[in-house]
Amino acid sequence: MKTNGRNSSGRKMNILFAIADDASHFGLYGHKFVKTPCIDELGVRGIVFTQAFTTNPKCAPSRASILTGKHTWQLKEGCDHYGYFPDGFDVYPDLLEDAGYHVGFTGKGWAPGDFERCGRIRNPAGKEYNCRTLDPPEGSLITPCDYAMNFRDFLNEKPEGSPFCFWYGCHEPHRPYKYGEGKTYGGDPDEMKVPPYWPDEEQIRMDMADYCHEISWFDSQLRKILEELDKSGERKNTLVVVTSDNGAPFPRVKGQMYDDDFRLPLVIAPPEGFPVGRQVDDLVSFIDFAPTFLEAAGIDIPRALPGNSLWDILKGGDNGSSAGRREYVLMGRERHDLGRENDAGYPVRCLRTKQYLYVHNLKSERWPAGNPETGFTNCDSSPTKDRILSLHENGEEFYFELSFGKRPEEELYNIKKDPHCMENLAFTEEGREYCVQFGSVLEKSLLQSGDPRSVGVGCDFDTYDYVGDDRHSWKALMENRWKKQPF
After folding, report:
1. How high does pLDDT run on average in the chain?
2. Residue 273 φ/ψ, nearest 5 degrees
């Protein structure tokens, strides 16, 4: 499909992609305990998506899916967390660069992992701009990357007349946090809205306030980047996309297969001339970003890409709905962080309609968040994690089972009635009918997309190299060389 990404003056459109690291909440979604004034303003002058989903709830595979436009199970080693970026897959920054775009990134691009092993000489997100630093608040654990000044350097290197594509990869709100920093800088722990799968206690509220403070940092740095964009005179010709890679770094969220992890905020502010101030409830997947950016640039969209360009939505055509009126989105995971026997993963495939979430745990005999004897390593260390495990040690099982306990092979949730996925309907009479229906659709979709699990070779995901250091291996963990540090 050939498209035209030029504006009325014949100039190609710029693309600014802003991605937070582990953020489930922006203020404009009704989360009043999170202060994101810049993003809120973008929502007013742009489009707010309420049903946007990552393909895999962990940093590296989610970002690989964004860059390639592929489901993560189509990406071989790229489906695992902390592996290496596989050969043989085009990424949209390279395709844009071939079409004359100036491309680059600041902060965190595709990561964590090794992109050089298969012959790449730079991060898949583009040329790196990370020389500039700043001083975070005193005593803070916020990353000292000066994203805005790095963006300025990028713009200064842009050839005259060339369009650009830039990736702002904020390191926040990834852990670790300085406990109490959120409250110190104006956050009120009493305002935090604690979900029902965590105990509503001061320790958890303080942890949430620290998390929200770092989301505000992402927002404040985005404002500075947009100010640089304004100074350059390019704002009116730039497509601005703001989202996150996966959900909040808390138990039962990051790395897990529930709605609070893979349904993510997404705000798109298009250039001048587009209908804005809208909310869109269409089902959107991260596999849609690459074809959208290619269409914005006027580049042929490869037929092999499984996603849908969001261009029809941006233009407001067909009442603002996406092409094809998608009925469901697909998500999955393989090996994230190590911590199970023989460094095995926890394979899952999911189907999400507007009302239901169907989860198929392919190896339900394994521990979903890592093994108890290794510290549940697929859950970041945090005060919230510590509190839930402490309650468990004292005989309180409710929160432990929700966050760390083993799961049945099938799960089904009515999202409209149960947005936090607390009541598994898979074993009810009505639920069994839906499980059969959704299971059949999921199996057919996975076969069509070439999922190795659907043809019996999914065990390959457990054999791909893990490129983190040795202390993360099953053997090292069992030898007690790992000391409760966040991954």
Report:
1. 94
2. 100, -5
